[in-house]
Design a protein that fits this description.
Layout (H helix, E strand, L loop, with lengths): L1 H10 L4 E7 L5 H7 L3 E2 L7 H12 L7 E7 L9
Antiparallel strand pairs: 1-3, 2-3
Amino acid sequence: MIDRSAAAARALRHHALYLTTYRGVPWNKPFYRRRGFVEMQRGDLLAPLRRVLLTEIGHGHPSSRRAIMTRDIQGACLQPR
């Protein structure tokens, strides 16, 4: 699903995928790292990502428990997993 999302986004000329996930779930960040995602620093978040984080906070998900990750998709060679 991640690779298909990346292919669709690339076809629309997007440059990256973004996601939010819980820090405390042991497999979350390692799972996404293996698929090319890196954690973003809070100071690097663009306005749309800040709005996503604020929406999550408004729904009761503490900011300190959330990780925002990105994956560059331009020129990436997608391979089946």
